[in-house]
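Folds abound. Consider this:
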Amino acid sequence: MEEIQGNTTIADRMPGLVAVYDVKTGQYLYTNKSVTNILGYQPEDFISGGVNFVSSLIHPDDVADIINQNKKALVEANTQSEDSPIEQLTFSFEYRMKHKDGHWVWIHTDSSVFHRNADGEVEQILNVSSNIDGRKKEEEQMDLLKQDFEEVVQTQNRQLQDREWLFRSLIEVVEDYAIFRLDTNGNVGSWNEGVANILGYTEDEIIGLPISIFFTDEDREKRLHEQELEHAKTKGTFSTEGIRMRKDGSTFFATTTLTPIWDERGILQGFSKIIRDVTERKEAEETIRYHAMHDTLTGLINRKSLAENFVIAHTNAIRHGNKLAIIFLDLDRFKTINDTLGHAVGDLLLKEVAHRIRNAVRKIDVVARLGGDEFIILVNDVRSAQNVARVADKIMAALLPIVRIENQSLHVACSMGIAMFPAD
């Protein structure tokens, strides 16, 4: 219980739903205030209601699966030692819970061991949960698009069987997709102009070549091209995403679909293969993921990413018996600077402050911007309070030099608060 009380100051500032429950009694020992933002309930509702109350909020279609996953995770946790890698001691679940106002919310939960008894058995579990409604909606849209695409491909393949002339007439005008007709061994028999646009081959160069030439050397060594053909024959179609290679040796990110073509007697006649360059889409997705985890202005991690880093740091501290510290920092008179010199100067000042803080701490420490002029520094592997004091001094020293922005000389002053686990 001391561990829990020592962490409430930190946990109450976290954006995610942080909860600790007792495995034996099924009672929640602690729940932070984020439960109200995510599910509309008060922490007292979870603490008084226990696991039975929380379980009653889980979607009926998800209950059995979550129970089985939790049982399996608890068995695995009890068989692992405290020296196991952190990723092996953390278990993730995704499910739906009913908000107090009646609508369903998709939840992602990372569970880790919070306390073991003298025999090494798990007694308390730490859960950190977040709302993933937005991500789930994006996944549903992607699934619908994929389903529509597969239906188009299947329809096309039914029309193309035993009609080579129709195949050629349809695909030659398509330039955004590289479309092939392969023989039963996976060698190119016919193609469209998309092959030249995407892969760089002419008709004379491509006819008769095996599909393995589109794979990287590493994937060829793994015989992935043979696995694709075999999977398509046994499963009816094969779709995947991965790196493919052009004639000039450059690579791109592609979606590929491979479908077998059978005659009326059930004899394999070959395959149709479709490759599309989706590098721009993939880069856009990576950009979206980056911005979802980082502050746009400063490039520091944001609240969501901080919550995930905290789970790892907290588990690490418990496991190795180290201390963990969080430094809360906000700038003094920042509003005055914004009001008198303008938001553009204020933004440049925040970027410079973020840069100085990042350079003042160690690589293993985490720097996040909560918003406005508020920053958090997660100090890992702390040996003593003096260590944290030295980190705070280095940050103060880094902010001391004058900041010059648009002919303005600005003195940066800040206020700090420090919380330590397990002391505070």
In short: The longest helix spans residues 133-160. The chain has a mean pLDDT of 84.
